[in-house]
Amino acid sequence: MNILVLYPRLVNYVGEYYDMQLGLAYISATMKQFGYSVTVVNLNHEKRTVEAVLQDVLINHQIDVLCIGGQSTDYNRIKRVITLSKQISPGIISIVGGGIVSSMPKLILENLGMTFGVIGEGEKTIIKLLQTMETNGDFSQIDGIIYIDSTGQVIQTKPIKVSKDLDSIAYPDYEGFGLGTYLDLQLPNDSLYLYPYDKPRMIPMIFSRSCPYACTFCYQPTGRIYRKRSIDNFFTELDQVVNKYDVNLLAVYDDLFSVKRDRSIEFCERIKDYKLKWIAQMRVDMVDNELLGILSDAGCYNISYGLESMDDTVLKNMKKKTKGNRVAEALEETYQNNIGIQGNFIFGDSAETMETAEKTIKWWSQHKKFTINLFPILTYPGSGLYLESVQKGIIKDEVKFLEDECPMINVSKINDTDFSKLLTKLNRLNTEHGYNGQLISVKQEGHDTIKGMLYTAEIECPHCHKTSIYKNLHDKRGVKLITACRHCNQRFDLHIPQLSEQTLNKRFDEILEETNGSRIAIWGAGEHTLFLLERTVLGKSNISCIFDNNKMKNNSEINNVKVIAPAPVNSDDIKQYADVIVISTKAHENTVYKQLSYLEDSGIKLYKLYCQDKLDNLLD
Question: What is the CATH number of the domain that holds 573?
Fold first, then answer.
């Protein structure tokens, strides 16, 4: 039996940083441990199309079984892989796992086209499933799966008992998933967490599984029974990856790093000798000033907190089991211990009103040094909030909800008009009110074949006012660089545009001359567009609107220009507003251009700002 484990493509081009998930890596390692022939393909490292990869691997490796998985937001990607696999190899067996199946097994089985779904933790289940295939056994005797039997009946077996002995599970198949390539691609501003080193090498690991809490907006596919690895087992794995891959950063990927103070302290005592910097997720009610000092001394440089709101009524409705005053205390204590903060306030819980939202926004505006993000709440399948939304009829078509990649919806007590205004306000606050570092000097030092120009910059931190020199910075993502201080670890924003405003203005002069008074729209409602409207001649032009597929931004404004989310995007929709579209993104310019190129058949002109031949001419 030949098995393909396929890691879905999470980025738009090879070389983009992505968060490496470990679920499939554990499954792959377990199958290899039991002697199965396993081929692993990480699509994030593939320059070929998905079709080309599958055509090659399925045929040349004579694949019998496809294993793939992910979250509910991966529905379209996974369905496409399964559909293509069946076209290439009609008899292939597909096994899907992860939150996408566990959250709504029957709906996924009936719509994804898979053969088997694995519900919950998968290491034991996948082996029993493969063994039963080999012996033509009775699948109904396997716990934790869903499938359609020979009579066409949907069979969902009883839930699997989760493993309490995590030490017995094989270490993830890092090699199969191309960990070396993943590490080699990392540059310090690919992610907020990579800034400590000019050549970061961050690896993900887990210290425990599941979360004992029941927040209404969260879905935990492995259940609420919190289980932990032994500390010896964790550090044996850490020894292996540090020695083999020259790791200098560690991301502890647990939903909750530790529920016991003494375990956290023991971890700190063990990891200190490794001289690694590391990050973790924790609760505000499980830290105090003393523990934070121990964490900082052991190399912890960033903690991700679930903050959610500063209103106690909303927090109670979310079942957070925390209060706003403890949120404030924990953030200040973390800040004072020179540990960076990653946290979000999420708006739109079912108990949210304009008054509760404004309370959180007011507190946020008075404490910007913590650099908390402001987002609408998302309704993930399987969560309490999702089930409530289905029951109330807010989500009417669950399959379409998946096809739309679980879009933002209004489940709050706020009417739709006011909720739309709230989203506009959140978008504006996130866009306009960054905590900005001071650029002391910058010079171009080299070129990366994937991410473009590389810079060395000296930057003064707006928090502690100390300076740091950063090498290998790139501006592939656009004009705003998000990083943090190497002294106090607090986050800040910085603008290092690859092209000067003068050069961009020359490019716009060309576009304006060629379009000769036509209606111009911008595609993309992010930081890059704000920069263009504020700092270049484009802002003085007659911009008809801004297009963005993010429905959260629909009917909001940037610099008094309205944002429109056309859905579906077609030439008739576009022609109502514009004759010309300027694509406002660096990282995904070519991808967006390909997606919109069909509009040119209707006479709509598309312009890429960073078309290299144009820029070379302007820079000469």
Answer: 3.40.50.720
* Among 64, 57, 117, residue whose Cα is nearest residue 90: 64
| Integer Cα distance of 493 and 461 in angstroms | 10
Judge if 459 and 418 occupy the same domain.
Answer: no
Reported as a single tens digit per residue, the pLDDT across 359-381 is 999 999 999 999 999 999 999 99
> What would the two tokens of residue 348 be?
């739109």
Question: Which token pair is 483?
Answer: 């990083």
Summarize the confidence of residues 181-185 as an average pLDDT.
94
Give residue 566's pLDDT band: very low, low, confident or very high (50, 70, 90).
Answer: low
List strands edge to edge, sheet with 145-148.
37-42, 2-7, 65-69, 93-97, 116-118, 145-148, 154-156
CB atoms within 10 A of CB 526: 21
Phi, psi for 376 (deg, rounded to 5):
-75, 150
Give the integer Cα–Cα distance in Å for 3 and 63. Answer: 6
What is the spatial distance between Cα 213 and Cα 224, in angstroms, rounded to a whole number? 7
Residue 606 or 499, more confident:
606
Tally the residues of the chain: 620
Tell me the C-alpha distance between 567 and 315, whole Å: 34
Task: DSSP letter for 449, please.
Answer: T
Rg value, the chain, Cα: 25
Shared domain check, 351 and 213: yes
State the chain's maximal CA–CA distance in angstroms: 72
Q: What is the dihedral of CA 210, 215, 217, 218, to 10 degrees?
A: 0
Phi, psi of 399 (to 5 degrees): -70, -45
**The CATH number of the domain where 91 resides is what?**
3.40.50.280
Decide if 162 is inside a domain. Answer: no
Specify if 168 maps to a domain: no
CA distance 286 to 261: 8
Q: Phi and psi (nearest 5°) for 428?
A: -65, -45
Pairwise CA distance, residues 38 & 67, whole Å:
10
Structure tokens at 273: 């000798």
When divided into structural domains, the chain yields a total of: 4
pTM above 0.85, yes or no: yes
**How far apart are alpha carbons 521 and 584 in whole angstroms?**
10
Cα–Cα distance between 68 and 53 in angstroms, integer?
Answer: 14
Residue pair 196/277 in contact (Cβ under 8 Å)? The answer is yes
Paired strand residues for 492? 483
Q: How many CA atoms lie within 13 A of 266 on its CB side?
A: 12
Q: Which helix (H) or strand (E) holds 384?
A: helix 384-391
> Residue 17's domain spans which residues?
2-156
